[in-house]
From TrEMBL:
Name assigned to this protein: CDGSH iron-sulfur domain-containing protein 3, mitochondrial
Residue intervals of the Iron-binding zinc finger CDGSH type domain: 42-79, 80-117
Essential cofactor(s): [2Fe-2S] cluster
SMART domains in alphabetical order: ZnF_CDGSH
Record Gene3D superfamilies: CDGSH iron-sulfur domain, mitoNEET-type
Organism for this UniProt entry: Gekko japonicus (Schlegel's Japanese gecko)
Keyword vocabulary terms for this entry: 2Fe-2S, Iron, Iron-sulfur, Metal-binding
InterPro entries in alphabetical order: CISD, FeS-contain_CDGSH-typ, MitoNEET_CISD
Source organism, top-level taxon: Eukaryota
Name of the gene this protein is made from: CISD3
Length: 127
């Protein structure tokens, strides 16, 4: 069934807006700025997660309660928010400490790369 021209244009506009917003919020470790996370640790944090409990993973790297958010991003990195998640089952998990994972909040091994291992703790990694 063909989409009427106006509806198609509206859907395209909404999709484009959503994609732009996602790109602007995307966390990368490629450039240094207050919009980029800093390295909190060069290894993941092992945690025991409870089923159904709501967690807020620190995405900016400034929290003193790693790997969880303590609100530091509000001053140190206002363009970065914590990542909220709620595990469906209790489990042991390894949460990212370098803040460069491509699978947040979980470690994906990116911390083993040179751009993380050779960077200073608390710095913006340069990839
Ligand atoms: S600690 Fe960040 S990817 Fe492993």
């Amino acid at each position: 069934m063909p989409v009427p021209w106006r509806t198609g244009r509206l859907l395209s506009s909404v999709a484009g807006s959503f994609a732009r917003r996602l790109r602007s919020q995307r966390r990368t470790c490629s450039t240094a700025s207050t919009a980029q996370p800093v390295i909190a640790a060069k290894e993941p944090f092992r945690v025991d997660l409870e089923a159904g409990k709501r967690y807020a993973w620190c995405a900016c790297g400034h929290s003193k309660k790693q790997p969880f958010c303590d609100g530091s991003h509000k001053k140190a990195a206002p363009r970065i928010s914590s990542l909220k998640f709620k595990p469906e089952e209790a489990k042991e998990a390894w949460l990212c400490g370098c803040k460069c994972t491509r699978n947040p909040p979980y470690c994906d091994g990116t911390h083993k790369e040179d751009f993380v291992q050779k960077a200073e703790l608390g710095s913006h990694p340069q990839s």
